[in-house]
Fold these 2 entries.
Entry 1:
Amino acid sequence: MMRVHHVGWLVKRIEIAATDFEKLGFSRDGAVCRDTMRGIDVLFMSCAHQRIELVSPYCENSIVADLMKRYKNSPYHMCLITDNIEQSMKDLEKNGFGRISDIAPAPAIDGKNVVFLINSEMGMIELVEETGDRI
Amino acid sequence: MTREEVNKTMDEVFQDVFDDEGIHVTESTTAKDIADWDSMMHVTLCVAIERKFGIKFNMDQVNTMKNVGEMMDIVLSQVS
């Protein structure tokens, strides 16, 4: 069974959104990380062992630019931890999920490999490959 | 299953995925004809079609199909 790593949350203005999440009791896990491959700024925040990932497009060709127009400020994916991303991806592809990205490192998650999939009934998920006890 | 039946069911899938009951697809319908049919919605659409018809597209088919007619060809090749 896979564990939840975080919930991804689209925001237009990451600094203002982070300040507002702090009012709800969330704390910043670090500084804003710029992912130049995906055209996004990312900030992880936590509250009572629950982690969110604020994701904000910083350029027009950002990977989330179209999503931002469609969903506005809102949660848009759940990230699950796997110890074998290739195998988990193949298993999900056989069970109603379609891959929408290649497996690639995510600078905001210590360069760990991630992949995004989509399901027509539940939306988008992300897999992150992680071994050991750290979550 | 006839081509007409596939087309009718395809209509239902498109209407559900794009949340628009006004959508009616034809053989020549492409992504340019439907607002919001971007690359992510294309994958969503493909998995919804797979589920509806109990079929499976391979990655090459997902990436190269040019219109609804080609989708229907693949569906028919696996259901009939």
Entry 2:
Amino acid sequence: MAPRVGVLALQGDVVEHVRVLRSLGADASAVKTRAELDAVRGLIVPGGESTTVIRLLDRFGLSEPLRTRVECGMPFWGTCMGMIVAAHDVAGLEQKTLDLLDVTVRRNAFGRQIASAEVPLAIPVLGTDPFPGVFIRAPWVERSGPGVEVLATLAGHPVFVRQGNVMGTSFHPELTNDVRLHAYFLGMLLPYGEGEASGAGDATGPVGAPGVASGAGGMAGDIGSPDSRDSGVIPRSSGSRPRS
Amino acid sequence: MAKGQQNGAQTGTITAKRGLAQMLKGGVIMDVVTPEQAAVAEKAGAVAVMALERIPADIRTAGGVARMSDLSLVQRIMDTVTVPVMAKARIGHFAEAQCLQALGVDYIDESEVLTPADDKYHIDKEPFTVPFVCGARDLGEALRRIAEGAAMIRSKGEAGSGNIVEAVRHMRAIRDAIAELAGAPSEELIARARELGAPLELVRAVARERALPVVLFCAGGVSTPADAALMMQLGAEGIFVGSGIFKAAAVYSNGAPEYDQNGFPKVDPEIALRYARAIVDATTHFEDPQAVVEASKSLGGARPMYGIDLRALDEKQLLSVRGN
């Protein structure tokens, strides 16, 4: 069964992620509405502008449903803007975030666009080959809470972090031909998807296929169940997480 | 400031330059002339702002020579917002572009809205670290700009007109030419490249990928939420709004525009915010007419800018014919 994974499509480099996910056999679709969000088992928030997307999440009533899904264990990956959206807070700015990941990020930390760069990165969890890091007006992680694993750094700052079912990268694997991080993320979905193997017969269907939202009701029941939580997904250590 | 390599980090690469445009997709880039307008644009959800000395509608009215913005003003706009700041340079004016790069703007628009500095050549954009966006009326023009190093293309439309017809014409021209190339047998591509006035390698790439190798936005004439939805459905990957927002929010007394103490046209920030948000919302949900209705209703009676019937203009008054 191909895992059904969504890419938040309010704004940003959506099709780039969808293309990589499909090349790995995932049933990838764009997520713009509540019904589309309810129909996916994992979500990528792509690169884009965080001030724009945070406003649109609120405007179209997606902030709270998204937060609830992630707190119930749905795998989440934010690339660049997505990591800012997921952060606890943003250094030096009064910017609202969803607070899914116990980190403080600094926006445009490496500088403005003229500092945007391609950098080979060491990411031990992906093996010994360096990963092609594409950093575009990229943030870094300035503070990370005790439950946060740092999986890669650049210039002494974390640029790839994970806290249970939530991961964030400062860079853009979707702009490269290296699919290892997308495969890593899909690996986080597999245990989460167990227990709802039936009902998703259109796993190879196109984006926005009429059948996509139909399984949402049944799935919602599974999301918070002990089975899906205990089936291998590492729970986030939320106890030490400050709440804004 | 030049492209460089430091500790294995390579700046100014094609991926880094085209990549920023990819991050702007699905969004609205708004022309602003003051830091206050930039703040309104950011609050409304603009993915970037474009700094220029006058919005195109005012350039059109004022006549004369339109140049790169006052750099201290661009700096203040950069200090005001966290979204990317773009700024316009005149066609062929590579020294203006060098200044904007040295200042640290995030994108340069080599723009026909300003008075061209060179009537033959565009800027050689490839050596710059900062990426460029350029206007195009058809596929040949788009590919020539990409060959010069443009990392993003916008259909030209007719800036400052409040009339969407040219934007539609240019977007359809680009889209139809791409479809035609994609269907052409490979032996025809050399002749097609000659007809398009574009490098063969780019023509082959477009035929293969059925798309430009860079992001394609729409510009020139977008002045309502429905205009934005129209252009997105015609294949634009995002929207530039030049005069459409702040002209709709302009303050008039007795039919004449009012100016502030710095000589900038006065705008009502509340109307501008509402208007800007409506265009962002319609761009996001362009395929959902109900969402465009909601966006339009949220204007609360604010009226779009005055539009010009382009048939009433002569060739000299058209901005889109500048540069080829």
